[in-house]
Amino acid sequence: MSGKLKYASMLYSGGQYDQAAAMLNHCESLLKPDVAHFCTCGSRGSFYGTDSFIKKSFHTHRHG
Fold first, then answer.
1. H-type helices in 14-50, by residue range?
2. φ and ψ at residue 32, rounded to 5 degrees
3. Cβ neighbours of residue 4 under 8 Å, at least 6 residues apart?
4. Residues 27 and 43 reside in one and the same domain
5. pTM (two decimals)
6. What are the tens digits of pLDDT across the range 36-52?
7. Are 44 and 26 part of one and the same domain?
8. What is the dihedral sign for C-alpha 57, 43, 7, 18?
């Protein structure tokens, strides 16, 4: 996802707005309800987990 967002940024910076929008729409389509949004930007990290993500994470067994 990180690479796709960087690519969209490059497209936007190059004036290729339609292609950048298409890449951002593609990235957004990859975010399913059971995907958590996590950012470690700066000193304030943030985490946003949907109900679906939280339920799935509590019902996932770790093996190892």
1. 17-30
2. -90, 165
3. 23, 26, 27
4. no
5. 0.57
6. 767 777 666 676 667 77
7. no
8. positive
Residue 59 lies in domain: 33-64
DSSP state of 8: H
Overall number of domains in the chain: 2
CA-to-CA separations, 4 to 10, 24, 25, 28, 44, in angstroms, rounded:
10, 8, 11, 11, 24
Residues 18, 24: Cα–Cα separation, whole Å: 10
Q: Say whether both 23 and 42 belong to one domain.
A: no
> What are the pLDDT digits (tens) for 4-27?
999 999 999 999 999 999 999 999
Distance in angstroms (rounded) separating the CA atoms of residues 25 and 28: 5
Kindly state whether residues 42 and 27 are assigned to the same domain: no
Residues 64 and 37 in one domain: yes
